[in-house]
Automatic annotation (TrEMBL):
A cellular component term, taken from the record's GO annotations: plasma membrane
PANTHER family: D-SERINE_D-ALANINE_GLYCINE TRANSPORTER, GABA PERMEASE
Domain of life the protein comes from: Bacteria
Pfam families, per database record: AA_permease
Residues of the Amino acid permease/ SLC12A domain: 36-463
Location, primary (coarse class): membrane
Alphabetical keyword list: Amino-acid transport, Cell membrane, Membrane, Transmembrane, Transmembrane helix, Transport
UniProt-listed InterPro entries: AA-permease/SLC12A_dom
Membrane topology: Multi-pass membrane protein
Region Disordered, annotated ranges: 1-22
Protein name: Amino acid permease
Membrane recorded as keyword: yes
Length: 477
């Protein structure tokens, strides 16, 4: 459909504020080139959930975790298709907060903006915790909080500099991650097809996928337990849609970006985990280390294991860096929308939202302090990442609810769409049911139940501040 004529109203942008302020938008966002955006989008599919979390999911779910990633990827793909159709239905929409506000009301934009901001704060906290665990690979006696807080200081300082530096760092971090995964896949396939035998006598073979008790070692409860970290692993796939929507030809670039998601899931998650299990066997994977690092240790190449540990550590730094960048820009955007204190809308001379950045990092410091209470890295990571998973579920549920409202209120826009969500209404309800089921699963484990029990306080707090803001607006009018 053609872009509507006339002057577009101010728009909410989760990554940069209000689009009506063109001067601010240029200085905040246009330092990132297409080269940066494309690599950041691809690299975003490879994060802490895969490199570190997959060890935990393999330990509780066995090889059925491969099915877990495929199931979650299947439903989340339809969330992205719903987002794609809505973004293309009106080119004034620059993010999912825009259409959620339009179809569900201002409360949806407020709840979504703040929850999405917090999800990236939580993701950054999880990355910091994991960085501490990676450093313990070289020095097991090193307390995890030392490298975690050191990384916070370094990344905060870097983010106080220019946006272009952030983009350049992420560009090279993404290339490193992609090359590491592709190299890992090629080495694994070589070992499998040459019938390599590791020092402990394990022969590399696809047959390990069907070893005795490998598929469901702890039954259905173990299978469901793997869903939490797997869901957390998908944080960031929605950025593909919002970055693509900013390009010159969204009707071409957005479908292309979304349609590539299944391929990325199959390559970076499913294929990688198949190779891990095929070469090392499920029973030998520890929950306390990245399975990708263990892989090279088990096949007798400790130098390569150390190199891979360096790669996954830089990957965690990359993910944390993306989260820090995103949180500061989202809080800035909330301030521009008057959904946050005006102090968060101030920029430095280098056009960096300093107050938003420092406040977000304060929360990251507080969250990372869980290492003083729960020194075990994997336990702390599970608790924190569970809360991130809950926020992802909430965000995706609102996107689907907005899609259902769009189908009910604007059937003519759907009829004109060239990028319709397949089985739109049915799959929206099916995916909402899956998201609800995922929340129930979180109640089955003590560690995940902790985060589930805390999460209502966040939403009650949001309701309180939204009601307070709404009453102030009504009194002013």
């Amino acid at each position: 459909m053609s872009k509507s004529k006339g002057t577009p109203p101010p728009e909410r942008d989760l990554l940069g504020g209000q689009h009506s302020d063109v001067d601010q938008e240029d200085k905040l966002e246009r330092s990132l080139s297409n080269r940066h955006i494309q690599l950041i989008a691809i690299g975003g599919a490879i994060g802490t959930g895969l490199f570190m979390g997959s060890g935990k999911t393999l330990s509780v779910s066995g090889t059925s975790v491969i099915l877990t990633y495929m199931i979650i990827g299947f439903f989340f793909f339809f969330v992205m298709r719903a987002m794609g159709e809505l973004l293309l239905s009106n080119l004034k929409y620059k993010s999912f907060a825009d259409f959620c506000t339009a179809y569900l009301g201002s409360w949806a934009g407020f709840f979504l903006g703040w929850s999405y901001w917090l999800s990236w704060v939580v993701a950054a906290i999880a990355d910091m915790i994991v960085i501490g665990g990676y450093m313990q690979y070289w020095d097991p006696t090193l307390p995890a909080w030392i490298p975690a807080f050191s990384t916070i200081i370094v990344l905060t300082a870097l983010n106080l500099l220019t946006v272009k530096l952030f983009g350049e760092m992420e560009f090279w971090f993404a290339i490193l991650k992609i090359l590491a995964i592709l190299t890992f896949l090629l080495v694994s396939l070589y070992l499998i097809f040459t019938n390599f035998v590791s020092p402990n006598g394990t022969a590399a073979s696809f047959g390990h996928l069907l070893d005795h008790q490998a598929m469901f070692p702890f039954g259905l409860s173990g299978f469901f337990a793997g869903f939490q970290i797997a869901i957390f692993s998908f944080i960031g796939i929605e950025l593909v849609g919002t970055t693509a929507a900013e390009t010159k030809d969204p009707h071409k670039s957005l479908p292309k970006a979304i349609n590539s998601i299944p391929l990325r899931i199959m390559l970076f998650y499913v294929a990688a985990l198949i190779c891990v299990v095929s070469v090392t066997s499920w029973s030998q994977i520890s929950t306390e280390q990245s399975p990708f690092v263990q892989f090279f240790t088990l096949i007798g190449i400790p130098a390569a294991a150390s190199l891979m540990n360096f790669v996954v550590a830089t990957s965690a730094m990359s993910s944390a860096n993306s989260g820090i960048f995103a949180t500061s820009r989202m809080l800035y955007g909330l301030a521009v929308e008057k959904d946050a204190a005006p102090q968060f809308g101030k920029l430095t001379k280098r056009k960096v939202p300093k107050n938003s950045l420092l406040f977000s990092m304060l929360l990251v410091v507080i969250g990372t302090s869980i290492l003083f209470i729960v020194p075990n890295v994997m336990t702390a990571f599970t608790i924190v990442s569970t809360f991130g998973s809950i926020l992802v579920i909430f965000t995706f549920a609102l996107i689907l609810m907005a899609y259902l409202s769009y189908r009910r209120k604007d059937p003519e826009l759907h009829a004109q769409s060239n990028y319709k969500m397949p089985m739109g209404i049915f799959m929206s309800w099916a995916t909402l049911a899956f998201l609800g089921f995922s929340l129930i699963i979180l109640a089955l484990n003590v560690q995940t139940l902790i985060a589930l029990a805390i999460s209502p306080f966040w939403f009650l707090g949001l309701y309180y501040f939204y009601a307070k803001r709404r009453n102030a607006v009504q009194r002013a009018s």
